[in-house]
Design goal:
The structure holds two protein chains of two kinds.
Chain A (H helix, E strand, L loop, with lengths): L1 E4 L2 E2 L2 E2 L1 H17 L3 E6 L15 E7 L9 H15 L3 E5 L2 H14 L3 E9 L7 E7 L4 E7 L4 E5 L16 E5 L12 E6 L12 E5 L9 H10 L3 E4 L1 H5 L20 E5 L5 H4 L7 E6 L12 E4 L2 H17 L1
Parallel strand pairs in A: 1-4, 1-6, 4-5, 5-11, 6-10, 7-10, 13-14, 13-15, 15-16, 16-17
Antiparallel strand pairs in A: 2-3, 7-8, 8-9
Helix pairs in contact in A: 2-3, 4-7
Chain B lengths: L1 E6 L1 E3 L21 E3 L1 H17 L2 E8 L4 H10 L3 E6 L7 H17 L6 E5 L10 H8 L4 E11 L2 E8 L2 E8 L2 E5 L11 H9 L3 E4 L7 E7 L9 E4 L1 H15 L5
Parallel strand pairs in B: 1-4, 1-6, 4-5, 5-11, 6-10, 7-10
Antiparallel strand pairs in B: 2-3, 7-8, 8-9
The chains are: A alpha/beta, B alpha/beta.
């Protein structure tokens, strides 16, 4: 059996979890074993039926009032209980914040190794290690590794593969169970949540991002970038250098340790193109670069480039966009 | 309060990564090294907490003998004590790393020097295993909150905030606890000259531990297939601007 942990929000299964089930189904087919899923919390009830279309033969639904607020150790306890009871060959979760967190707890509780953010999995013969490919350096480097352990624990890098529906399992069951949970499993639990401020376009969702690096020159230098972003219905981002200098808040940082963006166009101004930054901009459909240096590493990632000083080019671009608009 | 912060030595990669011939590592011949970014913030957070509440900051790393450099960086920022677990040879996986760290912490505790708070980075920049802090918490039976962007300590409890799927998630855990932080929790200070001088002479405690059998065993590293892109130079000056406006129009983001 292969087990996939399903994350959901308001009764909708998250895309990375569907991708995880897709990989899980392929493994299950290779092993000639069924695919099962673990869903957690009373609000997960409505989504169980939809999982059949993804090839899930058995849904295990952990129910306990205390599970309504997320608690990583309690989620791990549910997964470990299922693991001990059913003896699967592998347990998979999405390589999200929660997925990686829960799986690390499962690894700690079982003493098993965990491979985080896998993009490919080659199961090999039963009882042998898996050969996995996983992301390092936020995805700028790949690692091939042997994953040992009686039960293989791994997380699947989000968007490493598309979520595909699969042949529905012939027999299909939903089993509700009350996991044996201890008070200690809830010592770290979400006590309360605060919603995000509404209204403003967020960096990960923006169609246009105007990014600034050291070449912008100063905090004030971001004024024209703000203006350009506003004209194009976008938002401003920045490189790590800029947040380290204190020119912009960290919430604006695009990169491995900041935000991942996926705009229709990323206008990168005065940014050299360090790997740490480009990892965050990988989802951009087009990249337009403004840089004085035609040899800057960012040119290797760019579709279009204007060679020139940000402090002159961006204000000129603002005027040109305004001019084109008024015509 | 006594805080222990764990850091990792990683190369400063810059614009391009190239690998060694045996494909086991990044070619670092022309690269400098630094403390992994989330962990640099963990050091800053530890030093600030000790400045506010009193106590001491201990910095620990597991790595090659030269990782002493990153311990001294942390001491230059204000850490009081440094421990180096020397681990030469092939990379240690998350389980082995956590086992060694937990053993040192338990040793200190049994010697009467228990820590109130253990700080880690959420994940290392290079290996990205997302598990060392969590495994240490389990081994030492402490609560753990990961990915923390804001931390407050009062009355023997930690209030930790992080970004969740639907907004900001707030956790409250009793100390001692493990907290793994993300960059953005603070802006790390630039070490002062006296700080650097003090750190240069400060002692570093060293331990040697044998590498255990890895559960996740690196075979090789490789570079992902790049997008084969040809950049179109739009030009400079007025011509470039005009063509850029045309490009934005084609992409469909020009205001109407």
């Amino acid at each position: 059996m292969i087990v996939g942990l399903v994350e959901h929000d308001g009764g909708v299964v998250s895309e990375p979890s569907l991708q995880t089930l897709t990989l899980g189904r392929r493994l299950a087919e290779r092993h000639g074993e069924p695919l099962s899923a673990l869903v957690i919390g009373s609000d997960a009830g409505p989504l169980t039926d939809g999982l059949a279309a993804h090839g899930v033969a058995a849904v295990h639904h952990a129910v306990d009032d205390r599970l309504d607020r997320y608690a990583p150790e309690a989620w791990a306890a549910c997964l470990v209980e299922l693991l001990v009871r059913t003896g699967p060959s592998a347990v998979l979760a999405a390589g999200t914040d929660r997925g990686n967190e829960v799986m690390a707890h499962v690894g700690a509780r079982t003493g098993l190794p965990v491979a985080a953010n896998c993009t490919e999995v080659e199961p090999g013969e039963p009882g042998t290690p898996y050969l996995v490919t996983r992301l390092r350096w936020g995805g700028s480097l790949l690692e091939d590794a042997r994953l040992h352990g009686d039960v293989k624990l791994l997380t699947v890098a989000p968007h490493a593969l598309p979520a595909e529906e699969g042949p529905a399992a012939g027999e299909w069951s939903v089993e509700e169970f009350s996991p044996k949970l201890k008070d200690a499993d809830f010592r770290a639990q979400v006590a309360r949540e605060e919603g995000r401020p509404a209204g403003k376009v967020s960096l990960p969702e923006a169609r246009v991002v105007v990014g600034g690096g050291r070449g912008v020159g100063s905090p004030e230098g971001f004024g024209p970038l703000e203006e350009l972003a506003q004209l194009l219905g976008g938002v401003v981002g920045c490189s790590r250098v800029v947040t380290s200098l204190g020119w912009r808040p960290h919430t604006d940082q695009v990169g491995q340790t900041g935000v991942r963006i996926a705009p229709d166009v990323y206008i990168a101004c005065g940014i050299s193109g360090a790997i740490q930054h480009m990892v965050g901009a990988k989802g951009a459909k087009r990249i337009l670069v403004v840089n004085t240096d035609p040899q800057a590493p960012i040119l290797a990632h760019a579709d279009f480039a204007i060679i020139g000083d940000v402090q002159q080019v961006v204000p000129a671009l603002v005027s040109a966009v305004k001019g084109a608009k008024s015509r | 309060m006594d805080v222990l912060v764990c850091v990792k030595r990683v190369p400063v990669t810059g614009g391009r990564i190239s690998l060694t011939d045996d494909e086991q590592d990044i070619d670092t011949r022309y690269l400098g090294f630094t403390v992994s970014p989330h962990e640099e913030c963990a050091v800053e957070e530890a030093v600030r907490l000790v400045e506010a509440h009193g106590g001491s900051t201990t910095v620990l790393t597991l790595g090659p003998a030269v990782a002493e450099e990153q311990l001294r960086d942390a001491m230059a920022m204000g850490a009081n004590r440094a421990i180096l677990i020397e681990a030469e040879g092939p990379e240690w996986d998350g389980g082995a790393t956590a086992g060694a760290i937990a053993r040192v912490i338990a040793g200190d505790r049994d010697a009467g020097a228990a820590y109130d708070l253990l700080l880690f980075g959420n994940e290392s920049a290079d290996a990205g295993g997302y598990q060392v802090g969590i495994r240490v918490a389990n081994l030492l039976d402490m609560p753990c909150v990961t990915g923390v962007k804001h931390l407050e300590i009062r009355d023997g409890r930690a209030e930790a905030r992080r970004e969740g799927p639907g907004g900001i998630e707030i956790f409250e855990v009793p100390l001692p606890a493990v907290i793994t932080v993300k960059e953005g929790i603070n802006l790390p200070r630039y070490p002062s000259i006296p700080g650097r001088l003090r750190a240069k002479k400060a002692p570093v405690e060293r331990l040697h531990l044998e590498a255990p059998q890895p559960g996740l065993e690196k075979v090789r590293m490789r570079l992902p297939q790049g997008r084969d892109k040809q950049v179109e130079i739009l030009g400079d000056g007025a011509v470039g601007i005009e063509r850029a406006v045309e490009v934005l129009r084609q992409i469909g983001v020009m205001p109407s």
